[in-house]
Design brief:
With 132 residues, the chain is mainly α. Helix content is 64%, strand content 0%. The radius of gyration is 25 Å and the shape is elongated. The termini are far apart.
Amino acid sequence: MFHSLSTSLQSYISKMKIIILFILSVFLFSTAILGLRVHKDHVPRCSTCKSIVGNNLNTFKSVLSPSSCDDLCSNLDSQEQLNCNSICSFIGVEKLMNSIRSNGATGESVCQSLNICQVQQQDVRIIGNNFH
């Protein structure tokens, strides 16, 4: 009797392990497919922002009114989609599109206006007295 109870318990534990592994794999698969959302304390890298925005500026401008980051980033390849969603989730789709649609927008100017990249101060010095 104890032997059959022990066998039943082992069978139950084995089935539970399989169920837990299945649930864990579904979770990991879904986060990989959907892309992990960026937490608000994670600032995207400047170089990534300049590359994604600079290379896809016309693509982004052609999206008339994206309602989400997925709408904006869906036409990019998978790695660019992940980076685009990361930047967009951090900034917000409306703010990102306003910056992209500004006159003379470049990858660098967009990322600077969104405070992802620092604005480089021009080092201007007046040497000597050139005024007579």
